[in-house]
Specification:
The chain is 72% helix and 0% strand. It has 211 residues and is mostly helical. The chain has a single domain, classed as Cytochrome Bc1 Complex, Chain C. Helix 6 packs across helix 7 and helix 6 packs antiparallel against helix 9. It is globular and about 55 Å long. The chain starts with a helix and ends in a 6-residue tail after the last helix. The mean pLDDT is 96. The chain binds protoporphyrin IX containing FE. The site of protoporphyrin IX containing FE has 27 residues, from helix 3, helix 5, helix 6 and helix 9.
Length: 211
């Protein structure tokens, strides 16, 4: 171990990451953000595994999800873990937001981190919405049909917005590709970038004291 430590200076890194002093009156509520992050990591790992078999095309998407659930070894488990983690991710983000709100940690000097948090919340919801279409069954189709049509109520640009989101007039193959790209690449990359800022600010400012 000491040979590895000598080369990579792991104990210094360990000290820096885990030995930072925190206020002595904080409780389990301060773990909620970390729990959300844990589920994000599970989502990323299981999501990557699902991309090995999922096919984002009009003709193949439904069949590929059936194949994952029924034929691929442990595919049902990976898919279930992905679905459950998605719900728990959102639940823990909401609980974390409530904790931050109750602690009034949105006030200066943490207002920028609150704003980053709001963006994380919006992106996480977007991730859930785009992921919901991917099984390409009736429930997914109609949920997306209804959900995307709401953008049509935006004054002046509503119709353009719906077409932009759907990739055409109707929910179809183009929508599926668009949602897959957003769900598997664009949104997770944005979340990672914002999380990096979020954590960086928490480390710089230190966690707020309990009121
Ligand atoms: C992907 C979602 C998110 C993750 C993984 C995450 C993670 C974290 C973690 C680990 C901390 C430090 C420990 C803690 O307070 O729990 C933290 C702090 C903080 N988060 Fe989040 N967060 C997320 C979303 C949000 C949202 C939606 C908001 C508010 C709208 C928010 C606002 C804050 C603020 C203001 C702090 C500093 C709290 C303090 O100093 O007491 N976060 N976040």
């Amino acid at each position: 171990m000491s040979a590895i430590d000598k080369r990579f200076k792991l104990s210094a890194l360990h000290r820096r990451i885990l030995k930072k002093p925190i206020p002595d009156n904080i409780g389990y509520g301060y773990c909620l953000g970390g729990m959300a992050f844990t589920f994000f990591l599970i989502l990323a790992a299981t999501g990557l595994m699902l991309t090995l078999y999922y096919v984002p095309s009009e003709a193949e998407a439904y069949k590929s999800v059936q194949k994952i659930t029924e034929d691929v070894p442990l595919g049902w488990l990976v898919r279930s873990m992905h679905k459950w983690s998605a719900s728990l991710f959102i639940i823990f983000i909401l609980l974390h937001t409530l904790r931050v709100f109750a602690a009034k940690a949105y006030r200066a000097p943490r207002e920028l981190n609150w704003i980053i948090g709001v963006k994380l919340l919006a992106l996480s919801m977007g991730s859930g919405f785009t992921g919901y279409l991917l099984p390409w069954d009736q429930k997914a189709y109609w949920a997306t049909e209804v959900g995307t049509s709401m953008a049509g109520t935006v004054p002046f640009i509503g119709e353009y917005l719906v077409q932009f989101i759907r990739g055409g007039r109707e929910v179809g193959g183009e929508t599926l590709i668009r949602f897959y790209s957003a769900h598997a690449f664009i949104i997770p990359l944005c979340i990672v970038a914002l999380l990096w800022m979020h954590f960086h600010i928490v480390r710089r400012q230190g966690i707020s004291k309990r009121l």
